[in-house]
Amino acid sequence: MWHWKKLLVLAVAAAGAIAPLAAHHSQSAIFDTSKKVSVTATLKKIEWLNPHIRLYFEAKDGSGKVVPWVFESNPPAWFRRVNVNKATFTKVLDQTVTVEGVPARDGSAYGYMSKFTFPDKTSFEVVADRDVTAPNKD
Predict the structure, then answer these.
(1) How many distinct structural domains can be found in the chain?
(2) Which of 94, 101, 95 is nearest to 72 (CA)?
(3) Is 34 left (phi over 0), alpha (psi -120 to 50) or beta?
(4) Beta 96-103 vs 110-117: how paired, if at all?
(5) Nearest alpha carbon to residue 79 among 48, 104, 38, 43
(6) pTM for the predicted model, two decimal places
(7) Contact between residue 68 and residue 55 where contact means Cβ atoms under 8 Å apart
(8) Residue 106 in contact with residue 117, Cβ under 8 Å?
(9) CB within 10 Å: which end of the chain, N or C, has fewer?
(10) What is the per-residue pLDDT across 35-67, written as a single tens digit (0 to 9) for each?
(11) What is the distance between the alpha carbons of residues 65 and 85, in angstroms, rounded to a whole number?
């Protein structure tokens, strides 16, 4: 009987260790890196979580209909290294900003952020191969 308990504990521990790996995904599998998208929208919500932060927006399409957009980006640790934290985004909640990035392959209102421009036109870019200090004036 004791062996079954050990086996069950090991199975649960292994499943818990593997779950975060399954949650992380390849950017090229979800996003079309050959295309670019720019959305001017109202920032509504911030999820400051690993493995990627997520920013939720409300944009208007050509007919004036509100379209919810979600952009994900690098993990919180990357943003901290470039002097950006959750408060950087919180201060512009419910304000109009512009976010640029690559769109989802499935055509949904989902993207991976490469640039964020604040209402005052300061901006920062998400660049993997070099550190940047943000926000910067263009």
Answers:
(1) 1
(2) 101
(3) alpha
(4) antiparallel
(5) 48
(6) 0.75
(7) no
(8) no
(9) N
(10) 999 999 999 999 999 999 999 999 999 999 999
(11) 31
Task: Establish if 20 belongs to a structural domain.
Answer: no
Instruction: Please indicate, yes or no, if residue 14 is contained in any of the structural domains.
Output: no
Query: Which residue segment(s) compose the domain that 105 sits in?
Result: 26-137
CA angle 127, 133, 138 (to 5 degrees): 80
CATH code for the domain of 130: 2.40.50
Task: Give CA–CA dist 79/75, Å, rounded.
Answer: 7
DSSP 2-44: HHHHHHHHHHHHHHHHHHHHHH---HHHHB-TT--EEEEEEEE
Report yes or no on 1 lying in a domain: no
Instruction: Give the residue from 36, 49, 25 showing the smallest Cα distance to 98.
Output: 36
